[in-house]
Amino acid sequence: MTILLLAFFIGLLNGLRTFTPPAAIAWAAHLGWLKLEGTLALIGSVPAVAIFTLLAAAELVADKMPWIPNRTSIPGLIARIIMGKLAGACVAAAGGQSIWLGALCGAVGGIAGTFGGYQARTRSVKALNKPDIYVALVEDLICVAGCLWVVTRF
Q1: How many domains does the chain have?
Q2: Domain hosting residue 50, numbered range
Q3: Which of 13, 31, 39, 147 is deepest in the core (most CB within 10 A)?
Q4: Would residue 132 be called left, alpha or beta, if left means φ above 0 and alpha means ψ between -120 and 50 degrees?
């Protein structure tokens, strides 16, 4: 049960940033923190680590740009669901649980994180009366710290 909660939580973090959780999982698998077998083990390969790291870094910068579409738009939502499924499956597999249940938990977490993160960010900007970038940077820190927390539970 705890592993499936971690799969949901990593999916929830996917709702905040699409590529940070997969990058954290890629690094954790590469460093041997997560023991993945079969096809999922490919996420720990050097090319996968490099690709997810670059995508995560680009997203952390692009998220602050005014031309980036809302995370709740269809393409953003679909990307978060897909990456949430991948991240949830990896967490579940590393914890000895069903990959399919982990993927489902990650996808549900991705949806919840997308809409919950959107509401939290927009309401925080209004309540604090501060520029969006300050709230976005805090959101980045929460996502990175949460991902590190999840991948160090194994």
Answers
A1: 1
A2: 2-151
A3: 13
A4: alpha
For the chain, the residue count is 154
The helix (run of H) or strand (run of E) holding residue 7 is helix 2-16
Distance CA 54, CA 61 (A): 11
The Cα 99–Cα 49 span in angstroms is: 21
Phi/psi for 45 (5° steps) reads -70, 155
Nearest to 30 by CA among 51, 48, 18: 48
